[in-house]
Amino acid sequence: MLRQISHIYPESRIKKSVLTILMGIMSVGGKKRMMEMNENTPEKPEGQKEEKSSLMEKIQQLGQTNVPQLSQDSKIHCLTIVGQIEGHVQLPPHNKTTKYEHLIPQLVAIEQNPKIEGLMVILNTVGGDVEAGLAISEMISSLSKPTVSIVLGGGHSIGVPIAVSCDYSFIAESATMTIHPIRLTGLVIGVPQTFEYLDKMQERVINFVTTHSNIKEDVFKELMFAKGNLTRDIGTNVVGVDAVESGLINEVGGLGVAMKKLNELIDLKKEQNEGIIQ
Questions:
Q1: Residue 212 catalytic?
Q2: Which CATH class is domain 76-274?
Q3: Is the whole model's pTM more than 0.70, yes or no?
């Protein structure tokens, strides 16, 4: 047969045609085998895929595989304020920030949610935007539910009003709070009105702190305008026990005593509500 065909077509063309046919047969057979393998291979359930993706997210974001979760019946919400408080101006991406537009909706949701009976505010902040910090402080102080704050590491600058905005405040023994006059960044117009504006804004901070804590106004101003305590600034760095002795913070303590106090305030609130109903 091949000899007869070789008289009509050259041998090279016959070889190419035969190879093409064989490759086609092999490719068809290969596809069939792949389809059979895919059919026989069991697909992973969707739940397993989601679990794997969530596990990867935990590793990437938190550096660990298992993150303890609050129970569904928890009555306490934890609000963390860390880094620099970001207000009207967006800070550079390398700064660790707490955005006030993220905290305000959370505080509204805490007030509206009947399952949440108390708020724990954990502070480790260097300060930030004055108006944003005062807005957060005012919202926390106006909540109808019991609130407790704890300063861990530091609660500096505008972090001071946030710390005292709660019903009861704690500070860790090694934590510090820097009290200093407010400052402006950017363009400053050198006219008397600018300094009057600064003085009024500073009075807002002083009035809020003295109203929501046991510190006297003259003592707070003395700490704020002290010289020689800070190397490159005016003010005072108050540590743990000193913050309590000055009346700025209620008590020295950590997370355990803070949680205990918050539960006591929640129980007291329930008793008061029951007495009103009766």
A1: no
A2: alpha beta
A3: yes
